[in-house]
Design brief:
This protein is an alpha+beta fold. It has a domain of about 90 residues: Double Stranded RNA Binding Domain (2-Layer Sandwich). About 35% of the residues lie in helices and about 15% in strands. The protein has three helices and three strands. It has a three-stranded antiparallel beta sheet with strand order 1-2-3, with helices on one face.
Length: about 130
């Protein structure tokens, strides 16, 4: 099931991009900071718990997820990328891993394994020095 994060719960702000950018870098705020308060969101409780339990360095102690998108030169594309990344994080947390069920080897496979071990043991026993009778 896909959980859509309401835009009213997301705080977006434009900031100046880091790194090289020529004359434009000091004038235009093209990078986007996305802040999403997980604990105050309208997501189901179990999903909030899974998001907060994750050891993500982008998560503050208060439970606010902070993403910075500055890959693109336009603010609109960075905004779209930040929203897409948030959705991917929520989708990853919503995916519950399949429970592993312990299985037993079949009786035939156990027998084959043991027969192979016995065969290898006999081969290795023949490598030793001959005894006093031989």
């Amino acid at each position: 099931m896909k959980f859509i994060v309401p835009e009213g719960e997301i705080e977006l702000s434009a900031v100046r991009s880091a790194g090289a950018g020529g004359q434009n870098v000091n004038k235009v705020a093209s990078a986007v900071h996305l802040r999403f308060d997980v604990s105050a969101s309208s997501l189901p409780g179990w999903l909030k718990a899974r998001l907060l339990r994750g050891s993500d360095q982008r998560l503050t102690r208060e439970g606010v997820l902070v993403l910075k998108a500055q890959q693109h030169r336009s603010q609109e594309r960075n905004r779209a990328e930040a929203l897409e990344r948030l959705q991917r994080i929520v989708d990853a947390a919503a995916r519950v891993p399949k429970e592993r069920r312990a299985t037993k080897p079949t009786r035939a496979s156990v027998r084959r394994r043991l027969e192979g071990k016995i065969r290898r043991g006999r081969i290795k026993a023949l490598r030793g020095k001959p005894g006093p009778e031989g």
